[in-house]
Amino acid sequence: MIRDTTLGAKLWAAAIWALVGFFVLNLFAMIGTVVTSSFATRWLGTWLPIGWTTRWYDSAWSEFQLGDVLIVTFQVVGAVVLISGVLGVTAAYALARRDFPGKRLLVLLFLLPLLIPPITFGIPLATVLYRTGLAGTFWGVVAANLVPTVPFVILVMIPFIEQIDPKIEAAARVFGANTFKLFVHVLMPLLLPGILAALLLVLVRTIAMFELTFLVAGPTSQTLVVALYYAVFAAGVRAVQSIDAMAVIYMVTTLIWLIIALRFVNPTQIVTRAKQQPAH
Amino acid sequence: MTIALSQFDEVRLDHVSRDFGALNALRDINLTIRRREFIALLGPSGCGKSTTLNCIAGLLPVTGGAIWLDKSRVDTLRPEERGFGMVFQNYALFPHLNVRQNIGFGLKMRGTPKAEMERKVDEALRLVRLQGQENKLPGQLSGGQQQRVAIARAIVIEPPLVLMDEPLSNLDAKLRLEMRAEIRRIHNELGATTIYVTHDQDEALSLADRIVVLRDGVIRQVGTPKELYEAPAHLDVADFMGFRNKLKGRVLSHENGRAVIDVEGAKVSGIAREKLAVGAPAFAAIRPDDLVAGEPGPNALAVTVDTIEYRGREFVGTARSAGGLDFVFRSHLAVEPGAAIHLRAGDERILVFAEPA
Amino acid sequence: MHQALVPTIIHGPSLRQRLAARGFDSVTLLVLPAAIFSLCLFVYPFAFGLVLSFEPKSGGWLANYERFFADSFLYETIAKTLWLAVPVTLLNLVLAVPVAFRVRLMRHQRLLTTILVLPITLGTVLVAEGLLNYLGPQGWLNRTLMTFGLISQPLKLVHNYWGVFASLVITGFPFTFLLTLSYVTGIDPALEQAAATLGASASQRFRHIYLPLLMPGFAITFCLSFVQAFSVFPSAVLLGAPAGPTRVISIAAYQAAFEEYDYSMASAIAMIMGFVQLAIVVGVLASRGLFYRGPASGAKG
């Protein structure tokens, strides 16, 4: 856009920044409310709590069995990341390197789970999983979470693999690498940044994936976000501060991985695959 | 002719400067462009030639000085209020509009009546020889055709000034020569005042009435192609004009416009182009065409041939002196690599410049 | 001896070679695990759900659908969901476009995009919990408004329509914005400069250059943002009035499945939900055909 220096243009710009500022302010105030509340002794009808304490973290930890929940969460996320990595990268490699009849249909098939909201396909999926007895189990939760993550890895990796010149692989073959050596010495090092980025995005998305886990999880296979939902749902039974302490634990868990992920990916990639271009 | 020219006398850049933060992209540019003139801004990348063009177009605000169209100041106007036509490096054709709509865009923005618009667009299509292509989208055109649309779009609004930003740099060598002739033809037919940015001295020499050589945001020399080609004022301009041999030496004498310098113990005399102090470092600049293999004597340097390339009518060779100076020369005879020869040039063919600051 | 060579020449290409010529070889087979997985866990459940929805617990094969469209408690969920999803999506898009145009000029966009990606990453459950406190009668928002004398009574912003609306803006706006930003940055700035030199004012440049080039992108952004808002679930339960104005269609589907254990009915509702989304998405995407859809970088360079 051409920078304009007239008064009208400046007012317009100021209005837009005010809008962004308003949004960000509310966002931080919302997060701040949760954090403040989690450290509050009593907080009713005042700007700030009467006193500060960390005991809600102890009570949340024991009341909600957060130790177990966290272990389950990381097991689920780990399994989802590994399996979607293996399935997704291999499929993406084939789709990026070969043209075959039905490829467009297949790509559409992989695109659909990302376009259709989880709650829509989650209900029939949960039905099938309940019929087969998988629902409520650890592997049922993993399977449900894989439905959007495998296509996600495929669609992130296809353009990444396409931009690697196939001649590099041809060159490795010419210099005597067999398929295994080609994979280990040439492809893996080249693909690693892309795989890392894709898997970190899967990780962040899976920690926050509520709907699918919620629909298929049983008492022993809930992840943190589902446990948080139940806690908020049953608010009134427990102290608000205790729920907020749990929310803070959830936030910290998510944010640690988000910060790690953002070292390798652009924030925009969490939403879209489009490459950022410099404005000039 | 239906595409008329705006009536004005001159465009004047008056002490124009442009800073990017601490960096001076343009420093104190003074230049007057007369009506119907074709001016080329020539220089290496990063010299400020595109910045100058963008400042004139209004795409970049100037940070000092003023730009005048006769008596009216234009640098304070927004680009859309200046009414200059511009041809962009990547053409910047609107991909969603067909050829006719692209060319008519500027007229539409001005609220030109439909009949007049059609007439002018037809005239522009004829001028750039694109009749029959008017309903195609830019994506369906070849590079040369896109270039023609970009030119037509810029001239159809009858601008006082047409700005061209390296318009041929995206074309292959053959098409570039063809479009160069087209630009020349259109300029001859229309006489539109043009500022043309390029880094290619052949383009500048063949197209322009006057050439402005820029370097590091400063005008180094302004002159006709002949003046620049024959009498560059500085070493860097000479370099751009094809003086590929630059022999560093020390000034022995400087009088009556002639200078003698000592290059690796040999005396080289030539025409002094700058003020020279006796004893100071200086450069003798010689075109490869003027450097011939010959006998030892005045203006001759002993060299060893490095490479020799066959170029059809002649050979082009590179050579190196004992002191490590590099030479490019032409020869009608095949000289063997490794041969020890003497290279010499006539007094009138050697220009002597002071060492650049 | 020499004749032994002849048959290999007469034979046509082997099956393997013929398959390879059409693009099927061992590399292509790498796609199979993911494809089988997708068939088992995405296509099959969907087909199963569709069939199941026509096998109601009682009544004829259309009984589930008849019940849905006869019971106002059920069919009204469609209108309630649309009444949330459509205004929120339009608002988010209308806000995101000018912001994206402004942010595109920024040199350091990353801080802002990182902040905006926070609510998306944290997810709807956390946003619901945060807003319950923040927008509540004793929350900071109402306190601030009362301190400045803008209101005398706390606004009721939770456990109703506006609570869900706010949560959909908090998570939906960044999503819409980041998508819009990626489309806006995809357009060559030289096109706008060219339009400016040809005399187009800022508003004309937007109308004649950016808008037509961005329309297809806006359509996709609208669709993706819309389906997100349409399938709102946790915040509608936690922040809204799940028995009243924010009884959205996903709540109806969830209750059928996990409170009445009527999977057949739940599948029918899920199919209706999918159908409504599909109808709107297809409608919006079909209108894309009216616009230019090629590369937006000023033709090939």
Automatic annotation (TrEMBL), chain A:
Membrane topology: Multi-pass membrane protein
Sequence similarity: Belongs to the binding-protein-dependent transport system permease family.
Protein name from the UniProt record: ABC transporter permease subunit
PROSITE patterns recorded: ABC_TM1
Biological processes, Gene Ontology terms: transmembrane transport
Subcellular location: Cell inner membrane; Cell membrane
UniProt cross-references to Gene3D superfamilies, sorted A to Z: MetI-like
Ranges of residues in domain ABC transmembrane type-1: 70-261
Protein's UniProt keywords contain Transmembrane: yes
Transmembrane segments: 12-35, 69-93, 105-126, 138-161, 182-208, 214-235, 247-265
Keyword annotations from UniProtKB, A to Z: Cell inner membrane, Cell membrane, Membrane, Transmembrane, Transmembrane helix, Transport
Superkingdom as given in the UniProt entry: Bacteria
Pfam families: BPD_transp_1
CDD domains: TM_PBP2
Coiled-coil features, chain-numbered ranges: none
CC per GO annotation: plasma membrane
Automatic annotation (TrEMBL), chain B:
Keywords in alphabetical order: ATP-binding, Nucleotide-binding, Transport
SMART domains in the record: AAA (SM00382)
Molecular function per GO: ABC-type transporter activity; ATP binding; ATP hydrolysis activity
Location of this chain's protein in the cell: Cell inner membrane
Keyword Disulfide bond: no
Family: Belongs to the ABC transporter superfamily.
Name by which UniProt lists this protein: ABC transporter ATP-binding protein
Origin species: Microvirga alba
From TrEMBL, chain C:
Domain ABC transmembrane type-1 positions: 78-284
GO terms for cellular component: plasma membrane
Membrane spanning residue stretches: 27-52, 82-103, 115-136, 161-184, 209-230, 268-291
Any single GO BP term: transmembrane transport
Highest taxon of the lineage: Bacteria
Annotated CDD domains: TM_PBP2
Membrane topology: Multi-pass membrane protein
Main location: membrane
Subcellular location per the Swiss-Prot or TrEMBL entry: Cell membrane
Keywords: Cell membrane, Membrane, Transmembrane, Transmembrane helix, Transport
Protein name: Sugar ABC transporter permease
Source species: Microvirga alba
